[in-house]
Each structure stands twice: as structure tokens, then as C-alpha cells.
Design a protein that fits this description.
A hairpin with a 4-residue loop joins strand 5 and strand 6 (109-116). The radius of gyration is 20 Å and the shape is elongated. The chain is 41% helix and 29% strand. Helix 1 packs antiparallel against helix 3 (40-57). It is built from four helices and seven strands. The protein is of the alpha+beta class and 157 residues long. The strands form two sheets. Strands 1-2-3-4 form a four-stranded antiparallel sheet. A three-stranded antiparallel sheet has the order 5-6-7, covered by helices on one side.
């Protein structure tokens, strides 16, 4: 099964554009010192926090469980065609997947995958899947449950 959240890219670019446009208008046209005399610092901090939240949440998520390998990829949505500095990718055989957990916080959703090493110990790998739709999250959950069930069957048999 293959799934991703590529349709959200235009929305994130629009949000960045609106935030930058608002910051430019705020700094040049509205003369912020006169309008917001005592609250200028709070407005600047609010804009900065909004940009940081969008930056950390806006990640591309791709899941591919076709074939013998499981491929999961995270990368940034902005400037990824030119500078791909936020890419996090794992490609492992399905038989090495031991478990998973999907954490759903208020504004952040992550997938923690437990994978068995070549030495026999297990390691946890975290992926950001915040912008993945609920239906696609359900499909990822079903696929991972199926992989783990098959691994247990092979282990017992």
C-alpha cells in the first residue's frame, strides 16, 4: 500500500505566503509603533511562534509497503526541490518490524516504529505524520498491523 500527503503542499505554501505578506505589511504599511504601542513585542513574538509551528508541522510523509521492503519517508515541504536538508528515510525488510505506535497530540501526530537491528536489539524510529488525513492514517495503521501479524505468524511457525 502506498500513501502520502502531497495534496497539502499548496495549503502550506499559501500559509507561509500569508504569514510573510502579513509581516511585510505590518512592518511597512501599518506603522506598527503608532497602532500597537504597548503590544508590538507580543505581536512579533506571535508571528515568530506561528512561523515556527508551521515549519515544524509542515512535513511531507510517504508510506510504501508494496514489495518486501517497508519504505517510510519524511521531508520538508518548502524548498525541498533545491535543498533537501530535512529528509528522514528508512527502508527496511518487513520482517524486521517489531511494533509501532501512533501518537496523536493536539497539533502534532507521529509514528514511532520499532525495528529489530542486525544484532538482535530493537530501535525506535520516529516520523512526523501530522498532515496525513485521518483516513490515510487508518490505512497506515491497518498495513502495519498486518505486517506485524505476518511477522508473528512466521516467528511462531
Amino acid at each position: 500500500m502506498r500513501t502520502d500527503n502531497r495534496t497539502i503542499k499548496n495549503t502550506i505554501i499559501s500559509i507561509y505566503f500569508i504569514l510573510v505578506l502579513f509581516a511585510i505589511l505590518f512592518a511597512t504599511v501599518f506603522k506598527p509603533i503608532l497602532m500597537f504601542d504597548g503590544h508590538l513585542f507580543h505581536i512579533i513574538i506571535g508571528l515568530f511562534v506561528a512561523v515556527l509551528i508551521v515549519y515544524f508541522i509542515a512535513r511531507f510523509f510517504e508510506y510504501d509497503s508494496d514489495g518486501t521492503n517497508l519504505i517510510i519517508k519524511n521531508k520538508g515541504l518548502i524548498l525541498t526541490d533545491f535543498v533537501n536538508y530535512r529528509e528522514h528515510k528508512i527502508e527496511i525488510p518487513k520482517r524486521k518490524v517489531v511494533g509501532f505506535k501512533i501518537y496523536n497530540y493536539l497539533v502534532f501526530k507521529s509514528l514511532v516504529l520499532t525495528v529489530k537491528n542486525s544484532e538482535g536489539s530493537s530501535m525506535k524510529v520516529r516520523f512526523n505524520m501530522t498532515l496525513l488525513k485521518k483516513k490515510k492514517t487508518k490505512y497506515v495503521r491497518q498495513s502495519l498491523k498486518k505486517i506485524i501479524k505476518e511477522n508473528k505468524k512466521v516467528k511462531l511457525g
